[in-house]
Amino acid sequence: MKILSKYKYLLIVLTLAFSAFAFKKGTSYDSYKCMMQMVNYQGEGAYIVISLMDSDGKYVETLNVRGDDEEWYEEIPSWWKYFKKNKVTLDAITGATLAGGDRSVSILDIYKDKIDAGYKLRFETCVEHGDYNETDLEVDLTSENLTGKFEGKGYIRYIRIMPQQ
Is residue 103 exposed (0-12), middle (13-18) or buried (19+ Cβ within 10 Å)? Predict the structure, then answer.
């Protein structure tokens, strides 16, 4: 009987511990569509990394990668340092590169506690035998900006963000 009561106690402690994690801030997110329109350029498809950045400009999370050949990732040097150091998993967040004039939609899962809290979305681009744009586009992660259109400075002509329905 004592053994049974020990297991009950353990079960209660584990239930409380898991409940605390379930209500931890940052565990709920919303999904957003991010449509990217590329400028017309000649050459290979662009590798694009969309990252969540903190207010100090440090990487927090990789949200999406366009280009799935890891051999070229080091051509995106700022993100590559983060990728190598943090052993980032890219499962289900990669897609094909985008060529000049292409348009594509990606889904970004963004934790609710990151919105209106000083974070940014950074779009880094790179093309083989072309330029690397560390901040082709940066957008403050605010409620207002999650339904906007923003101009790029490099290979991205513009992006448009909207809630996924």
Answer: exposed
